[in-house]
Amino acid sequence: MARNELRPVVKLRSTAGTGYTYVTRKNRRNDPDRMTLRKYDPRAGRHVDFREER
């Protein structure tokens, strides 16, 4: 089965300004707007918000 644009790969960039990123997939049908997740930033040494980058 070929990959389609329903579940695209998105980059999550740290809002702490460290430049650290996570890569994940999201379902466009359930989350059409930009995704924000709270994850660990090893450069900042704490949990921060990671926002979807386009």
Automatic annotation (TrEMBL):
Q: Name one GO cellular component term.
A: cytosolic large ribosomal subunit
Q: Which GO terms describe its biological process?
A: translation
Q: Is Disulfide bond there in the keyword field?
A: no
Which PROSITE patterns does the annotation name? RIBOSOMAL_L33 (PS00582)
- Where do transmembrane segments lie in this chain? none
**Is-annotated flag, keyword Glycoprotein?**
no
Top-level taxon of the source organism: Bacteria
Protein's name according to its UniProt entry: Large ribosomal subunit protein bL33
Task: Tell me the Gene3D superfamilies matching this sequence.
Answer: Ribosomal protein L33
PANTHER family, alphabetically? 54S RIBOSOMAL PROTEIN L39, MITOCHONDRIAL, LARGE RIBOSOMAL SUBUNIT PROTEIN BL33M
Q: Which family does it belong to?
A: Belongs to the bacterial ribosomal protein bL33 family.
Q: In the record, what terms sit under GO molecular function?
A: structural constituent of ribosome
Source organism (scientific name)? Streptomyces dioscori
Listed A to Z, the keywords are: Ribonucleoprotein, Ribosomal protein
Question: Could you tell me which InterPro entries the record lists for this protein?
Answer: Ribosomal_bL33, Ribosomal_bL33_CS, Ribosomal_bL33_sf, Ribosomal_zn-bd
